[in-house]
Design goal:
The complex is a heterodimer. Chain A is of the alpha/beta class. Chain A contains 15 helices and 5 strands. The longest helix of chain A is centred in the last third of the chain and has 50 residues, at 295-344. The chains are: A alpha/beta, B alpha/beta. Chain B: It catalyses: DNA(n) + a 2'-deoxyribonucleoside 5'-triphosphate = DNA(n+1) + diphosphate.
Chain lengths: 405, 322
């Protein structure tokens, strides 16, 4: 790319297929640089940004690249070199002036936010800006949102807030916060840039990269996962076999329990070993295994702390299971969308080009109405899961509809 | 080496009332032998080794003493060792009663009952009463201990309206004997006790899927009235419906093989098979959607969760036999 306003080197190479976004962020970084030097302010920089876009479009990645470019220490050239220690530490999440809040549980609590607000009030220590990056700002509880609002309303001079959320709908981000942020809207990346990135960054071969980019539905992380993890490919395959595999009524139950079990397994694989390690670490920190006077009372306190940790881990496990299941449901919804597209004779690009045979079969058997009902059932199930319905109950109800139509 | 069994008691189990009675009986026996005996009850978790030593060692004038150690399953290694060493060589006039739930976290604490048994302790077992038949026998015994008699209908009426807590059952039984002439039947029970003490979500679900409109609504109202969480009722409805679906869809009649295939207990399969009459795949599908909806509704989606449950129960009743 020759456009000097849209560099594809350094930290900017992380942002896939979003030239408009890169342009405005780079302008902001240049303006920020001027204002730090005390020159006139062009107005391209501001203290709070809201990154919105569909899941997988790279909201938090864009925010992180922006943070790195703000801290970049390289003299001359395009800011955000990706080579200096500031760039590298920001991208690795270890920069002293960049605080990242990435909730692993179901929500961000007000206590967490208050401590963050305190940290945000300090001047930057080594860099030029203090950056607070909140991934999943849609998970702020009401109280946490209000705590954040106070500081976004009257920001410290050198602090920048970067919020990421699926959309700026009031359900995701309170209007009071939204109105104080400059929006950055990411669009769904196209197939070609994704495939390009897979080839360059992950060294995936052409065929696999093209395939993964075409079936990921514009979700970069998903494309990467599919391209690099054969188990993920297998899971997707299993899920997309469900619609055509429901022959008898008893298949409903096998399919549902299989779906829930595989999402549990996916979430559990990494979760369990991590849980144990964390617990062990905490116990050691609290003085377990020690001997001598006072150890008994110390362990008592440790048990309470371990229980606290277990609670957090459970919240994390619930979330990762839900996320895994949600991903499966999105794939499933894509299948029914493809059937609807095929029935309507549209030439829109299908979600799952590799399942064209199944789609064609379904297309000749189902009416558009029943396909739509099935699609509705999948979407309803996603909503039900977000509302805390037991996964197995919600999935079974959905699959009975998929079976009957 | 075995010790004199009257100086070492082990009360094993976690049925509170029975444990309490056993401890009291042990104290009473000791007092009978030595009316001046002092009695102490302590929780093991509040003890240190030296306190325990002090309690169990003979006193200057060798007065009698009964020491009851409660919740021995929570003892740590050190205390367990101290208890066992005292139990092996009891001081004169000291009676030790160890109360142990049978469980325990630490290995030593878990194995203590066996060690005490080997030392020749007198063991009183008080396991939790879970079987209905055992509970009925308990009520009958309570009544006859109080000097009365009760017939079978009276027993089930009493359990239905008082609940399964043994303490309450025992109190109600002795009260009934005192209030009547000693012959207790259903009318006598009903005169003093009304309503229902325990209705589980499954009782509601069972009535709903068998099409018992009045019975299911009554059970639901009782369940809500006595504070069964709405979420549990919704879960029970969902579980019952899906079990019917799974069993019916499998379409086999060999309950044992089916139980193995579906990894369900055999009694549940048998029950679901009998409930499955009156259901077909489309009505089960409809019912599964209904219970999934109510699952969301009781978790905050409905303005009134009680009403949502009631409507779902009626819906299930309506779907049954369609």
């Amino acid at each position: 790319m020759a456009d000097p306003d849209v560099p594809d080197s350094g930290v900017w190479s992380e942002i896939v297929g979003q030239p408009g976004v890169v342009r405005s962020l780079l302008a902001a970084v240049r303006a920020a640089d001027l204002s730090v030097r005390g020159d006139s302010d062009t107005g391209a920089m501001t203290h709070a940004w809201l990154f919105t876009g569909p899941p997988g479009s790279g909201r938090s990645v864009a925010a992180r690249a922006f943070a790195a470019a703000l801290q970049c220490e390289a003299e001359g050239g395009t800011p955000g070199c990706g080579q200096c220690s500031a760039c590298r530490t920001v991208l690795a999440g270890t920069h002293a002036d960049v605080r990242v809040v990435a909730p692993e549980g179901l929500s961000i609590s007000v206590a967490e936010m208050r401590s963050l607000v305190q940290a945000a009030a300090r001047r930057p220590a080594t860099g030029r800006w203090r950056v607070v990056l909140i991934e999943d700002a849609d998970r702020l509880t009401e109280g946490a949102g209000n705590a954040l609002l106070k500081v976004v309303e009257e920001p410290p001079e050198r602090t920048v807030f970067l919020l990421c959320a699926p959309s700026d709908h009031p359900e995701d981000v309170p209007v009071t916060i939204r109105s104080r942020c400059r929006p950055v809207r990411l669009s769904t990346p196209l197939v070609a840039p994704i495939a390009d990135m897979l080839r360059k960054r992950d060294g995936v071969d052409d065929e696999l990269a093209d395939w993964a980019a075409s079936v990921c539905g514009g979700h970069i992380g998903r494309a990467r996962r599919l391209a690099t993890d054969s188990q993920a490919r297998q899971r997707r395959e299993d899920i997309l076999r469900i619609p055509r595999g429901l022959q008898r009524f008893s298949d409903v139950f096998t399919a549902s329990s299989e779906l829930v079990r595989s999402s549990e397994a996916e979430a559990g694989e990494s979760g369990e070993s991590r849980d144990e390690a964390e617990k062990e670490e905490l116990r050691t920190a609290m003085g377990a295994g020690g001997s001598g006077k006072g150890t008994a009372s110390a362990t008592k306190g440790a048990n309470a702390a371990v229980r606290e940790l277990e609670k957090r881990q459970k919240s994390r496990a619930t979330r990762s299971q839900r996320d895994a299941l949600d991903l499966a449901l999105v794939d499933l919804a894509g299948f029914y969308r493809d059937v609807l597209i095929a029935r309507s004779g549209s030439t829109a690009a299908p979600n799952h080009p590799d399942f064209a045979d199944d789609v064609a079969e379904a297309c000749s058997e189902w009416t558009s109405e029943s396909t739509l009902r099935r699609l509705e059932a999948v979407l309803y199930c996603r909503r039900a899961l977000a509302r805390n319905v037991k996964p197995l109950v919600a999935v079974e109800a959905m699959i009975t509809t998929l079976h009957h139509g | 080496m075995a010790v004199d069994p009257s100086s070492l008691h082990l009360v094993l189990g976690d049925e509170e009332l029975l444990v309490e009675r056993a401890v009291r009986a042990a104290v009473r026996d000791a007092r009978e032998a030595d009316p001046t005996a002092e009695s102490r009850r302590v929780k093991v978790s509040e003890l240190t080794g030296s306190e325990l030593d002090e309690m169990l060692s003979p006193s200057l004038f060798s007065e009698g003493r009964v020491v009851a150690l409660e919740a021995a399953q929570e003892a740590n290694k050190e205390i367990v060792e101290a208890i066992l060493s005292h139990a092996g060589q009891p001081a004169d006039g000291v009676v030790l009663v160890v109360v142990h739930s049978g469980g325990g976290r630490a290995k030593q604490a878990k194995e203590m009952p066996k060690a005490l048994r080997d030392l020749g302790a007198r063991v009183t077992e008080c396991p939790k009463i879970t079987k209905p038949a055992k509970r009925e026998a308990f009520v009958r015994e309570e009544v006859s201990n109080a000097g009365g008699r009760i017939d079978a209908a009276g027993v089930s009426a009493l359990i239905e309206s008082v609940g399964s807590d043994l303490r309450e059952l025992a109190a109600a039984a002795s009260q009934l004997v005192a209030d009547t002439d000693g012959r207790i039947d259903e009318t006598a029970v009903r005169r003093y006790h009304q309503g229902r003490a325990e209705v589980s979500g499954f009782a509601v679900a069972e009535k709903a899927v068998t099409g018992d409109r009045a019975g299911s609504l009554e059970a639901l109202r009782w369940a809500l009235r006595i504070g069964v969480p709405q979420v549990l009722i919704a879960d029970a409805l969902a579980d019952t419906v899906r079990t019917i679906g799974r069993v019916a869809a499998a379409g086999r009649t060999d309950t044992y093989r089916l139980a193995g295939e579906l990894s369900l207990p055999e009694w549940k399969v048998r029950k679901a098979l009998s409930q499955a009459r009156g259901w077909n795949s489309s009505s089960v599908a409809e019912a599964m959607r209904a219970v999934a909806t109510v699952n969301a509704e009781v978790k905050g989606q409905a303005a009134d969760a009680d009403y949502a449950l009631e409507r779902t129960v009626l819906r299930l009743v309506g779907l049954q036999g369609r």
